[in-house]
């Protein structure tokens, strides 16, 4: 009878499975366990499961056991950091999780201690934790190695289905199995195989021996002989069927800074994972492991300084590779360009200070899309290479390349690589059935002979296992498979750059949009707003302190400490809104503290500015413009009153104004259903939506249909990833919120007029105040949501009397144009996309923009501007966006394009109004300590240099223009030249001028 290859493979798998039950020659259960100092028996439930608990135990090995073959086997009921203390008192720390349960025994007598939580790696609670297992085994290493080798052969035969080598692999595996002299004594055989799935299905097993006999010497000899024969046969087959392809392996443990667990648990995950990785390096000199994220190492320095010292040693030895060059692995859709610059600045500085290395590779495997600003910033930060796998997650269109040049907004390029591993992506395995599809999916194999593959359990940490180390060693002599070797990521990219210098590669221009996880632009909106306020608050505090210094004040101190807090909370599962509730409690507290610290620093800087100005008398107001754009005189005074006056404040200008300079601009009027000034006339419909916005300078009606129509989508229920995704059919059922609880004119002053509208939808309330300042060019819509409904999506839609094929959306350090139609699948997939402070639709001569101070999810379809205001998912936080939150968005008609109409400048004003301070001892006047001449530029930062020597001024060209640009400094100051975002000289860059979307920094010093 002839079996098919599939039947033969099934038979081999069944026979291989039996070997596992003879891995242990002898087993001794560990008695005398203690839980928090009190006795606990194996199999017993924990007395309590909250927080971190501690187990302890001890064991002495039998004298006839070889120490090298002894293994400690533990399952304490949750994740643990275990400490093994040997006879000499030396401590060995290791991570215990479902993938790391067997450990080397360092001496014949050991004591065991643990820090344990009743959780699994992905944060799942262990509802009924028990002390499941505590034993030492005498490992039959011969059986263990053969068992693994035969499994790898079966995996290879399966994945190489159809390859000529497959029947040969089955032949050698069958020969090896037939050559074994295997035990058959009934009592031992039944006891050994009792844990097998098939035996566990039996109605009632007979009594079994507690310590069944293992292999005898003759049987073990047959195992050793079978292994050596099998290795020889595989090597012969490798000669006949050489390796196909090459894979660069990097050991890896993706540890989400916070996700389905709070950050306090991440701190424990770090220690568990890092100790495990170090232990594997002691077992294998070939093993290579990478770990990104400067923040993790800074945290380890606090929690476990000895661990960091060991990591530093392995970094110097070349086995442990620090990676990434950033403070954390951040989301890149929502942070400002300055935040991304600080990620690199503080990340690279920390790595260089701690490890003596500066990174050339940006490592972002798991972010939800990538800003087109990144390539320029990476290059300025010393990084010429970029890695992710997330582009392979797009659901509609396949990204066209996996080794390519990524070209940013300004034309800067980095070499980018992604691999497509269908077995857990960046959490790959050392297995034939992982290697083969990863190599098969590598599309640039005609250009470069190697693809990268990161292996190790991740997201919840854990990393590489001892089995993966042994697998790599065995796979070195396998036929037909891709050849794999442990490699440093930097070395992989060095070789890839050599290839890119010789061969033409695909070029991808601009942002990398992920066709998935679009709801991360909106979920957990309250923390998104706090983040916006925190990063803006720090930039403003630094700018004010810098202006004070330019006027003659003291050198300001670095604000790296609060910036680190902001950067931490930009992590790609915090800022996007995809974590559990506990994470957002921490994030809100941390960011709120930064906001308060920034306000305090701003006030101190305002007082310092005032101290540098000429003395005088009168009840005056000090006004500071913290931007590089001229601003209309709009203020909120300390008593809460609003000023909307005729004058303007110069870029980075300072003014001390008397009361007569604060008189309102004329022309403001209002009624219950209208607001009007010299620029806009706004009329409301009966349902409270906006019926008309007349732009008086052009005579154009801005709206087509009604504006600020609020829609709720109660079918926002994704297939997967509740907090992450919004499906393309969400709009198939939309309910417009038209019910009015009240509509009243609440303010009719000379500076500002406002109408308050209150609506109810089901269990939630929406309160909006539509306001128009006397000198306003935009209609502000201040919104308060008191939300108490689940799994609904709230958006505002405004149809405008404008037609164009592309809309303009602000992004980090520039703008990106997006289609307003769905001609192709690529365009259709972009139905929800990121924008920062504005999105604009313009035709020649006229346009309309929607501005915001806290939102990121936008759509522009046809002539409808859409802004996403709130989602209410139930996983992983059942109460996401529950309760009260406030924010403001605005509608702004304008003449010309978005650039000509000053849309960005109005968005700046909305997000960071002018600063005001009442002064009674300063003379009226105006000052401009730092000025710019040339084409319009936007300010990124005026910050203290990190080395304490002067100021760093950073600007960017925001619109894609080119022209002259230079800074004008006050007396006794000099421009020391262009520096990178790492604050190092860029001598090859001219001191003057700006290119399209260029980010440029200068060091200024007192002469």
Automatic annotation (TrEMBL):
Domain annotation Glycoside hydrolase family 38 central: ranges: 515-591
Membrane-crossing segments per the record: none
Cross-referenced Gene3D superfamilies: 2.60.40.2220, Glycoside hydrolase 38, N terminal domain, Glycoside hydrolase family 38, central domain, Golgi alpha-mannosidase II, domain 4
Single GO term (MF): carbohydrate binding
Superkingdom of the organism of origin: Bacteria
Pfam (any one): Glyco_hydro_38N
GO process terms (BP): mannose metabolic process; oligosaccharide catabolic process
Entry keyword annotation includes Metal-binding: yes
Annotated keywords: Glycosidase, Hydrolase, Metal-binding
Family stated for the protein in its record: Belongs to the glycosyl hydrolase 38 family.
Protein name in UniProt: Alpha-mannosidase
């Amino acid at each position: 009878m002839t079996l098919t290859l599939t039947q033969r493979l099934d038979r081999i798998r069944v026979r291989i499975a039996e070997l596992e039950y003879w891995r242990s020659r002898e087993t001794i259960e560990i008695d005398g366990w203690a839980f928090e100092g009190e006795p606990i028996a194996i199999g017993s439930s924990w007395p309590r499961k909250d927080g971190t608990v501690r187990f302890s135990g001890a064991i002495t090995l039998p004298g006839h056991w070889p120490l090298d073959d002894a293994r400690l086997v533990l399952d304490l009921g949750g994740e643990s950091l275990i400490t093994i203390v040997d006879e000499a008192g030396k401590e060995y720390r290791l991570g215990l999780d479902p993938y790391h349960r067997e450990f080397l025994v360092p001496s014949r007598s050991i004591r065991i201690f643990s820090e344990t939580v009743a959780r699994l790696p992905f944060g799942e609670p262990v509802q009924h934790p028990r002390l499941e297992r505590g034993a030492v085994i005498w490992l039959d290493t011969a059986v263990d190695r053969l068992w693994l080798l035969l499994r790898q052969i079966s995996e290879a035969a399966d994945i190489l289905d159809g390859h000529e080598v497959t029947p040969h692999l089955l032949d050698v595996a069958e020969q090896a199995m037939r050559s074994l002299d295997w035990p058959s004594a009934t009592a031992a055989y039944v006891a050994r195989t009792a844990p097998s799935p098939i035996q566990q299905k039996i109605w009632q097993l007979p009594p079994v021996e507690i310590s069944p006999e293992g292999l005898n010497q003759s049987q073990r000899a047959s195992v050793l002989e079978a292994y050596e024969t099998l290795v020889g046969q595989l090597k012969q087959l490798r000669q006949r069927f050489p390796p196909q392809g090459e894979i660069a392996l990097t050991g890896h443990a993706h540890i989400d800074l916070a996700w389905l667990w709070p950050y306090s648990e991440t701190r424990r995950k770090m220690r568990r994972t890092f100790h495990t990785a170090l232990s594997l390096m002691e077992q294998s000199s070939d093993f290579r492991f990478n770990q990104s994220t400067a923040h993790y190492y800074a945290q380890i320095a606090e929690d476990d300084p000895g661990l960091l010292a060991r990591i530093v040693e392995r970094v110097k030895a070349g086995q442990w590779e620090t990676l990434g060059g950033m403070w954390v692995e951040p989301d890149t859709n929502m942070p400002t360009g300055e935040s991304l610059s600080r990620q690199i600045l503080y990340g690279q500085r920390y790595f260089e200070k701690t490890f003596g290395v500066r990174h050339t590779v940006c490592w972002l495997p798991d972010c939800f899309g990538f800003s087109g600003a990144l390539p320029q910033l990476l290059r300025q930060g010393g990084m010429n290479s970029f890695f992710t796998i997330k582009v392979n997650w797009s659901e509609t269109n396949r990204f066209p390349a996996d080794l390519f040049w990524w070209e940013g907004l300004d034309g800067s390029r980095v070499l980018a690589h992604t691999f497509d591993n269908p077995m857990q992506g960046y959490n790959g395995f050392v297995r034939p059935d992982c290697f083969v599809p990863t190599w098969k999916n590598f599309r640039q194999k005609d250009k470069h002979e190697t693809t990268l593959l990161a292996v190790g359990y991740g997201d919840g940490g854990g990393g590489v296992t001892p089995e993966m180390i042994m697998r790599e060693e065995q796979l070195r002599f396998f036929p037909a498979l891709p050849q794999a070797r442990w490699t440093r990521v930097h070395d992989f990219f060095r070789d890839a750059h050599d290839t890119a210098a010789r061969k033409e590669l695909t070029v991808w221009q601009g942002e990398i949009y992920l066709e998935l996880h679009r709801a991360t632009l909106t979920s957990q909106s309250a923390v998104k707003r706090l983040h916006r306020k925190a990063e803006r608050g720090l930039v403003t505090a630094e700018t004010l302190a810098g202006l004070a210094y330019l006027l003659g004040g003291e050198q300001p101190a670095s604000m790296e400490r609060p910036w680190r807090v902001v950067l931490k909370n930009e992590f790609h599962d915090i800022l996007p809104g995809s974590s559990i509730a506990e994470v957002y409690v921490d994030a809100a507290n941390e960011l709120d503290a930064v906001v308060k610290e920034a306000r305090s620093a701003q006030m101190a800087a305002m007082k310092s500015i005032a101290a540098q100005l000429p003395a005088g008398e009168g009840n005056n107001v000090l006004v500071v413009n913290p931007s590089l754009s001229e601003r209309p005189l709009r203020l909120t005074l300390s008593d809460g009153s609003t000023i909307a006056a005729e004058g303007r404040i110069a870029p980075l200008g300072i003014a001390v104004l008397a009361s007569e300079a604060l008189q309102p601009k004329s022309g403001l009027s209002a009624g219950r259903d209208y607001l009007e000034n010299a620029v806009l006339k706004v009329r409301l419909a009966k349902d409270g939506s906006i019926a008309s916005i007349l732009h008086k300078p052009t005579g154009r009606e801005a709206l087509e249909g009604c504006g600020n129509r609020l829609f709720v989508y109660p079918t926002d229920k994704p297939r997967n990833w509740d907090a992450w995704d919004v499906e393309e059919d969400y709009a198939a059922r939309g309910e417009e919120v038209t019910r009015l609880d009240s509509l009243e004119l609440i303010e009719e002053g000379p500076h500002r007029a406002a109408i308050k509208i209150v609506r109810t939808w089901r269990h939630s309330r929406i309160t909006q105040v539509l306001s128009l300042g006397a000198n306003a060019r935009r209609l502000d819509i201040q919104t308060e949501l008191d939300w108490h409904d689940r799994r609904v999506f709230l958006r505002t839609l405004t149809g405008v009397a404008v037609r164009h094929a592309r809309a303009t959306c602000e992004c980090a350090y520039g703008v990106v144009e997006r289609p307003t139609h769905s001609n192709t699948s690529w365009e259709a997939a972009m139905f929800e996309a990121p924008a920062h402070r504005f999105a604009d639709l313009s035709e020649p001569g006229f346009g309309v923009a929607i501005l915001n101070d806290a939102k990121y999810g936008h759509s522009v379809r046809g002539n409808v501007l859409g802004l996403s205001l709130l989602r209410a998912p139930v996983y992983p936080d059942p109460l996401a966006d529950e309760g009260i939150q406030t924010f403001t968005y605005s509608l702004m008609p304008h003449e010309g394009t978005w650039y000509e109409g000053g849309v960005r400048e109005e968005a700046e004003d909305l997000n960071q109004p002018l600063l005001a301070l009442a002064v009674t001892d300063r003379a009226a006047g105006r000052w401009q300590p730092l000025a710019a001449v040339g084409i319009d530029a936007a300010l990124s930062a005026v910050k203290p240099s990190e080395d304490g020597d002067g100021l760093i001024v950073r600007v960017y060209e925001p619109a894609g223009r080119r022209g002259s640009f230079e800074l004008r400094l006050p007396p006794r100051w000099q421009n020391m030249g262009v520096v990178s975002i790492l604050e190092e000289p860029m001598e090859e860059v001219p001191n003057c001028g700006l290119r399209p979307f260029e980010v440029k920094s200068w060091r200024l010093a007192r002469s």
